[in-house]
Specification:
Elements (H helix, E strand, L loop, with lengths): L1 H15 L9 E13 L4 E7 L3 E10 L2 E9 L3 H8 L3 H12 L3 E7 L4 E8 L2 E6 L9 E8 L3 E10 L9 E11 L2
Antiparallel strand pairs: 1-2, 1-10, 3-4, 4-5, 5-6, 6-7, 8-9, 9-10
Helix pairs in contact: 2-3
Amino acid sequence: MGLFRFAVGVALVFASLPALAQKSGTAGGKGRIVYFANPETMEKAEVAFSPKVAWAYADDSGPAGKRIHVLLAESEAPVVELSMARDRANARRKLCAEKKAPFVDLELNDAGEVELLHQCGAGHFGTEMVSTLNGLDSVVVALEVFNAKRVKGTLRGGEGWCGDGKYCEQTEDYLFDAPLN
């Protein structure tokens, strides 16, 4: 009987994992942030990343108008600092360099399509565009909710194409439910 209760308890814990990002302001999942440790030699390094906090904001930084940024972070520190900044683009870089707190800032156009992916890993800030070089988007966002108050969905990314629409190496697998401020 004890083993049965244990098995039921374990099943309930695993069944609740997808619900981690069901509450507004939360994120879940695992991934890694890859950055150039030495830009001169193109030497890469990486840091593990498991976001817990999600927040979204709008700005007019895009060439065609409004952009929506979805910020995923391991703590609320980046969210608090960016929410108070007037120039959030510079604040992102400064926050990364000074605090070295890892974060991912997904930049979407007003149709909810990925434009850019900004990442901070170990004090190194980088911006990348979606690459389709190998026939598979390097970043895939599936939005469940995209309106004036909320952005909810998943972000997956990886490198290489190993058939059947799968990455050879998955680098990101996050879910988020971000209030839009």
